[in-house]
Design brief:
The protein is α+β, with helices and mostly antiparallel strands. The protein has 5 helices and 14 strands. The strands form 3 sheets. An 8-stranded mixed sheet has the order 8-9-10-11-12-7-13-14, with helices on both faces. Strands 1-4-6-5 form a 4-stranded antiparallel sheet. Strands 2-3 form a two-stranded antiparallel ribbon.
Length: about 230
């Protein structure tokens, strides 16, 4: 892979584990990125947030594990099959990664429902689109409609041999449809239709309860000790 310069962030409070600090290695901002190169970086445990590409580099912890689903081997669980049945009439439209006020309003309702005490609940429209979109990555905003109502949006990167789940937000009043789960299941099926190999789910932290859902998709692979291996 092309030699890439990295810069290490200053220590800060960990977002996932109490009493821990975190640091990340960022691809040097002036380095010219594109989707093919990012595809290679994903394989080595990196992930993007907006235009920035990073990987955890914590001195006292190694619990942030990049994880991915091998599409061809995936087997839906009983609960996931129920979710698919529940969303049998959910309509999906793949859109360009541009700002839409309807999306942003939904994003704020979701944040106020899920993370009312977080700064994300008061994010600006500029911060929102900078967080989810990218100038160099092939990204789509996937809309999910229930009874003609926008129910959820999944931000998805389309890469050489994979899809990468960037972020999903949904209408709180439609929580019964398990739209977060359905968005991942849709990405797995869509990757299968495109003959792609993986769906990347970002980082999994075993001791963080809000990350536990990722192990519900099996088989699941984790980038551990610089190699991909199964997480059971």
């Amino acid at each position: 892979m092309t030699s890439i310069s990295l810069t290490i962030s200053n220590p800060q409070k960990c977002s996932y584990l109490e009493d821990k600090t975190s640091q990340s290695a960022f691809v040097y901002p002036r380095f010219l990125l594109d989707s093919p190169l990012y595809s290679k970086l994903l394989v080595h445990g990196f992930r993007r947030s907006g235009n920035e590409v990073y990987s955890p580099r914590c001195s006292e912890c190694a619990q942030c594990i990049s994880c991915r689903i091998p599409v061809q081997s995936f087997k839906a669980s009983r609960n996931q099959k129920r979710c698919l049945k529940k969303n049998n009439n959910t309509k999906v439209i793949i859109q360009a990664p541009v700002f839409k006020q309807q999306h942003f309003d939904l994003y704020l309702r979701y944040q106020q429902f899920k993370h009312p005490d977080s700064i994300m609940a008061t994010t600006t429209s500029e911060e929102y689109i900078q967080f989810l979109s990218s100038d160099w990555c092939t990204t789509s905003f996937v809309e999910f409609f229930i009874d003609n109502q926008l129910a959820a949006v999944a931000v998805v990167d389309f890469l050489d041999q994979s899809l990468s789940a960037v972020y999903t937000f949904f209408e709180p009043s439609l929580s019964a449809y398990s739209l977060g789960v359905y968005a991942v299941l849709w990405q797995i099926e869509h990757a299968h239709q495109l003959n792609l190999t993986y769906v990347y789910l970002g980082y999994w932290v075993e001791q963080c309860q809000k990350m536990a859902y990722k192990t519900h998709y099996q088989p699941l692979e984790g980038f551990i000790n610089q190699q991909w291996q199964l997480i059971t």
